[in-house]
Amino acid sequence: MSSFFQLFMAWGLLLVFVLVLYVVDKVNVIYQGYAKPEMPQTYNDGLFGELTGKTLWDAMSGLPVPGMDAKTVSNLKPHYEPVLRQHIEQVFMEGYTHGRAGTAGVPTNNRIIPTPRGSLESWLPMHHLASIYQAGVDFAAKKPDEELRIQQSLDQVTSMIYARLGLDLTEAYSATLLIHTDEEEDASLPPSEEALASPPVALPAQPAPSVVSAPPPVAAAPAPLAVAQAEAEPDIMPSALQPDLSSLTSPAGTEQAVYATPGVNDEAKAVPA
After folding, report:
1. 106 and 99 in contact (C-beta within 8 Å)?
2. pTM attached to this predicted model
């Protein structure tokens, strides 16, 4: 009996040990399923310290934040203004893009903003964000009669934000955001593949210019005055063709034949052999 009881106790302890391991593992699985996962730090800008998200907005708005005095907050406001400007511009451009695509929605309060020292999580109230986002959506519709209302709405909302934070607004946001970029984008885009693949349009053939053949040159008729002068002047035999007959003698040798030089109007006589 004693050996049987000892074997029973050994098996019982082994089963209890296995059951404990199973329960511990099950509890860990359940805990990991319901526990919030550890989120990585969304900011690494050491200038603002632990101020991030809504805590940063509260501190910049003048609300008391543990560990932050008024002087530190006042010194951080000039560095917070570029973060705020980027947040507003990104929300407006998001509304503008969604408006052009026809997928308008609701913006989120938090947004990661890059800084010279890294990045920072910024937060803005939803009622301000909704107005800025809607201004971008309305501006994407390209209605000229609505642009004045959009400009006034955008400038009013941004002025309220800056006034609440105690910042100076040197330039209205409407001067830099209310600009359509369609013409610039179309000019900078390369031609489409369809335009490159399509054959060039053949231009209608132009008729060849007719060449008028020039008439053959016609010999110019002699001038009447030159013809008259030619008819009036007699034919004069050149002196080179007039032989000297004074040295010729007759065949008998007794008489010397003397020939007179023909006159101007007389024809040259044949020379006897």
Report:
1. no
2. 0.52
pLDDT band at 5 (very low <50, low <70, confident <90, very high): confident
Please name the residue ranges forming H helices in the chain: 2-34, 53-61, 70-101, 126-140, 147-165, 174-177, 182-188, 193-197, 224-232
The DSSP secondary-structure symbol of 239 reads G
The answer to whether the CB of 117 falls within 8 A of the CB of 49 is no
Distance of CA 62 to the CA centre of its chain: 45
Residue with structure tokens 């050994």? 10
First to last CA, the chain: 193
What is the distance between the alpha carbons of residues 77 and 168, in angstroms, rounded to a whole number? 10
3-state secondary structure of 122: strand
Q: Are 106 and 61 within 8 A, CB to CB?
A: no
Residue with tokens 């984008």: 185
Q: What 3-state class would DSSP assign to 268? A: coil
Mean pLDDT for the stretch of residues 169-182: 86
Chain-centroid distance, C-alpha 17: 73
Q: Which run of H or E residues covers position 242? A: none
Residue 204: per-residue pLDDT = 57
Q: Do 173 and 158 contact (CB within 8 A), yes or no?
A: yes
The domain spans of the chain are 53-180
Q: Which amino acid is at 25?
A: D
